Amino acid sequence: MTRSMTTRRTSDTSTAVLHRRPAERGAAPALPARPRFRWWHAAAVGVAANLVGNLPPSRADDRDFYASLPTPAGAPPGWVFAPVWAVNNTLTLWSNLRVANLPADTPGRRAARASEAATWALFAAFSPLYFGLRSPALGAADTVAGLVTTTHAVVVTARLDPPAAWALAPRLAWLALASYVSTVTATRAVRGRRTRPRTTTTAPPSSPESS
What we know:
Layout lengths: L1 H17 L20 H15 L8 H7 L12 H20 L8 H24 L3 H25 L1 H6 L1 H27 L16
Helix pairs in contact: 2-4, 2-5, 5-6, 6-8
Family: Belongs to the TspO/BZRP family.
Subcellular location: Membrane
Keywords: Membrane, Transmembrane, Transmembrane helix
């Protein structure tokens, strides 16, 4: 009697596990045969975000501006940003496409997409704030906000589609480093302005002809 009850419970548990959603079992969910969103939708999002991020157009002295900032130890050189973000954006778009093609009633899908939409907006706003306005403080605030939204996106996406969540991991790691660098840089820049001695200009002496 006890053995038959144990066997039945085990069978019921196994059946329940098999009927769970793929994401609940730690596997990738089955995407529809004809997805609603295709690669060109993702490409359009990436192109639009990068176009907005380049308004106003980059200046020739942007690298000199970055090099002149009091960055802390571990700050990456300026040339690293372009290839790193090319990889991050490609993986992000792949992840976003997978989540977008999940059934509309999937719990957590809307929250994941909202976090990613906010992250794309912050990505587009960074260059105009940091380089356009020459404001390390606004750039730091944008970066830290991006770290927060990315962390939320990773947590929510992990419940929906583990591979899509892993695709966001490089961006999360990069933004963690960037938040440290930008925060320290902004703090040092503000302190440097406060401690910088003020220069007073004196009017040149008037010439005898003007008196």
